[in-house]
Specification:
Elements (H helix, E strand, L loop, with lengths): L1 H19 L3 H4 L1 E3 L2 H4 L2 E2 L6 E4 L3 H10 L2 E11 L8 H6 L4 E20 L7 E21 L1 H4 L3 E5 L2 H7 L5 E6 L4 H4 L7 E5 L2 E2 L3 H10 L4 E8 L2 E8 L8 H4 L2
Length: about 250
C-alpha cells in the first residue's frame, strides 16, 4: 500500500511540474551576449525550422550565409517536437531555428499505480520508461549589413603559426561570409591575412580606420596562402543608407 501511495505522489509531482513549466525551449534558453544582439535584424516573418543531422556543418553554413546565433535552448531529457520552438523564436524575433537531437537510450524509473475502473481496491503497477535525448535549438537572426564589415571571420595564430609566418601581426581566416567584400576578393579559409591597405589586419582599431578612410575604394590585401605571400584587391564596403525609422531602433 505504501508503494502505491508513493507511486501516486510521484505521478502527481511530475504532472504538476509539467503544468508549471513553460517548456524546455523556454526553461533552458540562454541568450547570446548583448554586443551580438545589437547587431542583428529582427525577423519580419514567421521563423522557419531546420532539423539537422550535422550541427557543426549546418551551424557554419548559417554563419557563412550572414546569420548569427542570438540564443539557444539545450537540455538532456525527453524529446520535444521542434515545432514547439516557434513560440520562443517569435518571442526573440529569430528568423531560423536550427534543431538537433540525439537519442541516448532508455531507462526505467519506477512505476505508476493505475486502479481498476470502478474499484477502490486492487489495480495495476505500470512501469515507467524514460527515453533520454540530447536536444538543442539554436536561434539565428541576420546580421545587419553595416556589421558585416569585410566579411572575414578569423582567429589569432598559434605560436607555431607565428614562427612559420614570421610575424604575430596577422590572423587566420576561419571562413568568409558569402556576398561580402572578402568573398568577392576570393579570400579562402586557411589564408593568413597580414594587412589591408597597409594596416595590420589583427588590429581592430586600424581596421576600423581603414573602413572609414577608404570606404568604397579598392585597396591591397596582403596574405599568405599555402606558404606563399600574395596580394589580392579588396573593396572597402560602403555603409548602407539608414532611414530615419531605422536610426530610432
Amino acid at each position: 500500500m505504501k508503494r502505491s501511495i508513493s507511486c501516486i505522489t510521484l505521478a502527481l509531482a511530475l504532472a504538476c511540474a509539467t503544468t508549471a513549466s513553460a517548456g524546455p525551449f523556454e526553461d533552458f534558453f540562454q541568450a547570446s551576449p548583448p554586443e551580438i544582439l545589437v547587431g542583428v535584424e529582427p525577423a519580419k516573418s514567421l521563423p522557419r525550422i531546420q532539423v539537422t543531422n550535422d550541427i557543426n556543418a549546418d551551424y557554419r553554413l548559417m554563419e557563412e550565409n550572414g546569420y548569427i546565433e542570438i540564443g539557444r535552448s539545450e537540455w538532456r531529457g525527453r524529446y520535444e517536437d521542434p515545432k514547439k520552438s516557434i513560440k520562443k523564436a517569435k518571442k526573440i524575433k529569430a528568423e531560423v531555428v536550427l534543431f538537433t537531437y540525439q537519442y541516448l537510450g532508455s531507462e526505467s524509473g519506477g512505476s505508476m499505480y493505475t486502479p481498476h475502473p470502478g474499484s477502490m481496491r486492487g489495480g495495476l503497477a505500470v512501469p515507467i520508461t524514460f527515453h533520454n535525448y540530447d536536444v538543442g535549438a539554436f536561434y539565428f537572426s541576420k546580421i545587419r549589413p553595416e556589421k558585416i564589415g569585410f566579411g572575414i571571420v578569423h582567429r589569432f595564430m598559434t605560436p607555431q603559426e607565428v614562427q612559420q609566418i614570421g610575424t604575430n601581426k596577422a590572423a587566420v581566416v576561419e571562413f568568409v561570409r558569402r556576398g561580402s567584400a572578402a568573398f568577392d576578393a576570393d579570400l579562402l579559409p586557411g589564408d593568413v591575412v597580414l594587412s589591408i591597405a597597409g594596416q595590420d589586419f589583427s588590429n581592430k582599431e586600424k581596421m576600423d580606420q581603414v573602413k572609414t578612410d577608404y570606404v568604397g575604394q579598392t585597396v591591397p590585401m596582403e596574405l599568405v596562402r599555402d606558404g606563399k605571400r600574395m596580394t589580392l584587391p579588396i573593396t572597402v564596403p560602403k555603409a548602407p543608407m539608414v532611414t530615419l525609422n531605422e536610426k530610432t531602433k
